Amino acid sequence: xxxxxxxARRAGVSPSTVSYALxxxxxISDETRRRVEAAxxxxxxxxxAAxxxxxxxxxxxxxxxxxxxxxxHVPVMMRLAxxxxxxxxxxxxxxxxxxxxxxxxxxxxxxxxxxxxxxxLTDVELHDPRLPRLRSQDRPSVLIGVPAHTYGLxxxxxDFRAAGEACVDHLAALxxxxxxxxxxxxxxxxxxxxxxxxxxxGFTTAATRxxxxxxxxxxxxxxxxxxxxAERLLHGHPALTAVVVHNEPLLAPLIAAFEHxxxxxxxxxxxxxxxxxxxxxxxxxxxxxVSLPADELxxxxxxxxxxxxHGTPVPETTLLAPRLTERASTARxxx
Length: 335
What we know:
There is one protein chain. By secondary structure, the protein is α/β, with parallel strands linked by helices. Residues 48-56 have low confidence and may be disordered. It has a six-stranded parallel sheet, with helices on both faces. The chain has a six-stranded mixed sheet with strand order 7-6-8-9-10-12. It has helices spanning 4-11, 15-23, 30-43, 49-54, 74-90, 104-114, 131-136, 160-173, 186-190, 194-210, 226-236, 251-260, 277-280, 294-309; strands spanning 61-65, 94-98, 118-121, 141-144, 155-158, 178-183, 213-218, 242-245, 270-275, 288-291, 317-320, 324-325.
């Protein structure tokens, strides 16, 4: 393992000068700092975050507030977290993961105790109770999600409204007249979680624009509920020929439930989804889907936060355009 003394020997300075040059604790000439940085880079030296703290340097720690609330799909959230950690390490930052449900005071307490440089927040609500604290504190932050009012904030997310519209546009172009959205679990809508409401709004807006009959059905997180949900959908909407699924745990079980009831996908029922690409290809019939880019979102969020830490202006809201991939689960309506 490369030590600070190795860097000092390579740069021709004392170990304390290396510490000051890398931590910024004391003024160092530009020429010396460049020499130290070049030596550290050549040797692959990285000071441990705890050592930087003890030396009085910047903590170089980002906090990811990702509460594991009911209705949160943990596998997708963990993909996002891994992307955040990987990208942060590329910027020489460590990540503190906060999984408890922390509102204004709790979040502030956790952040100040941990002495972090900046904050990343997930599971953003339209009227999130954490936002007043974010707007008033001096630490920069980035939301992975877009609340109802974005002033004074930095937000990044998939354009969920456009994603909902893209699914309906695709189905309308295939001649479908009755569509249903199987959405997130009920508790997600009750919390007014932003992404779920944005997608629902896009779905209903596009259905109205195309003159389609449409309905929205929150879906539970338990795959065992799929058969009952499929029966209720067909009983309540006999003319149903297309479904948009925004509920990862239900996707494959719901397709199996429809087929058990005698509907062939896509001959009798077309299915689209908003989910990670690998989940869309898991069911027996690969699903036409809008990709949920968890890796890309995590990287974008960290990059925005690092730019803010460096004082670089960033846009208020960054929306990733939806990418729809057509697969075997959708077909033209012939009757």
